[in-house]
Amino acid sequence: MKSEILKLLRESEGYVSGQQLCEHFGVSRTAVWKVINQLKEEGYQIEAVRNKGYHIVDCSDIMSREELQSQMNTVWAGREIAYFEETDSTNTQAKKLGDAGAPHGTLAVADKQCAGKGRRGRGWDSPSGSGIFMSILLRPDMEPSKAPMLTLVMAVSVAQAVCETEGVDTLIKWPNDIVVNGKKVCGILTEMSTEVDFINHVVIGVGINVNTGAFPEEIAQKATSLRLEMGHPVKRSPLIASVMHFFEVNYEQFQKVGNLSFLQETYNRMLVNRDRDVRILAPGNEYNAHAIGINEQGELLVRRGDGRTEAVYSGEVSV
Ligand code: BTN
């Protein structure tokens, strides 16, 4: 009931009367009053005016399961939420939930991770209040060879969500770093549990630097946060809900089409490396090339010095 009261208060322009809430939920005035008090204790600013009712002044960056549920406008993505004040890694938690039978679309979210994982065995710094640390559990009906494309589907979804909710120009560095003003604000780590020709589940972990105030000197040239770029703090829960919305829409198209053709143009428009000379850092193979854009499989098409076009399917690029 708490998340639904929050949703109702947020969606109404003016005041919602106690009577309306009682009737809507079929509960007593005291029960409504108790929930309102709990919400106030959690940090929500709710005005209660006699003969008018309740009105929410939505200003703080609150994270809880109910807050996230109240923001979510999806059918399956992020409808089930496991929220942690602190955990090792949301990817690890989502995998555990997957092994225990949690449904497609279950989302693990943490305020803080003490063993956040990055790509290529790196860590992911995840202090409390600073960022979005979340992992979605998927049970895709597709061949395991197609699963890496899901990471690109998520990359576009995050870029679309950041652009829509924050109004900031957001680009993608192939394959899946989200970049604002030339610096990384988000990384994505996909992990999979498969049989030979069958996917048990896929976990896509997303780390967004939202309110990080400063970065260590060694990465300050390359990393940034939304707050640093926009000059004001950003609320995490609406951004999480927006990522889930875009991901759900894009994922359903991907399931239908079976490749990235429907997203190729959007991705390539956001591709920071497009039409640029880049250095390809493929496993055991580094070389310079000219980046053209992704193909339907999400591979990066590059032109080599001798004029040959090649599709790079794994690795990273440095500009
Ligand atoms: C990268 O190295 O760019 C990928 C970073 C991915 C970090 C996210 S934070 C939420 C999820 N849980 C993890 O342990 N890692 C991912």
Automatic annotation (TrEMBL):
Pfam families per record: BPL_C (PF02237), BPL_LplA_LipB (PF03099), HTH_11 (PF08279)
Keywords in alphabetical order: ATP-binding, Biotin, DNA-binding, Ligase, Nucleotide-binding, Repressor, Transcription, Transcription regulation
Reaction(s) catalysed (UniProt annotation): biotin + L-lysyl-[protein] + ATP = N(6)-biotinyl-L-lysyl-[protein] + AMP + diphosphate + H(+)
Origin superkingdom: Bacteria
GO MF annotation list: ATP binding; biotin--[biotin carboxyl-carrier protein] ligase activity; DNA binding; transferase activity
Coiled coil: none
Record flagged with keyword Cell cycle: no
Enzyme class, UniProt record, top EC level: ligase
Gene Ontology cellular component annotations, sorted alphabetically: cytoplasm
Annotated Gene3D superfamilies: 2.30.30.100, Bira Bifunctional Protein, Domain 2 (3.30.930.10), Winged helix-like DNA-binding domain superfamily/Winged helix DNA-binding domain (1.10.10.10)
Residues in BPL/LPL catalytic domain copies: 76-255
Biological processes, Gene Ontology terms: protein lipoylation; regulation of DNA-templated transcription
PROSITE patterns in UniProt: BPL_LPL_CATALYTIC
Enzyme Commission number(s) from the entry: 6.3.4.15
Residues that coordinate or bind biotin: S89, T90, N91, Q113, K184
HAMAP family documented for this protein: Bifunct_BirA
Family recorded in the similarity comment: Belongs to the biotin--protein ligase family.
Summary of the function given for this chain in its UniProt record: Acts both as a biotin--[acetyl-CoA-carboxylase] ligase and a repressor.
NCBIfam families documented for this protein: birA_ligase
Protein name (Swiss-Prot/TrEMBL): Bifunctional ligase/repressor BirA
Source lineage: Bacteria, Bacillati, Bacillota, Clostridia, Lachnospirales
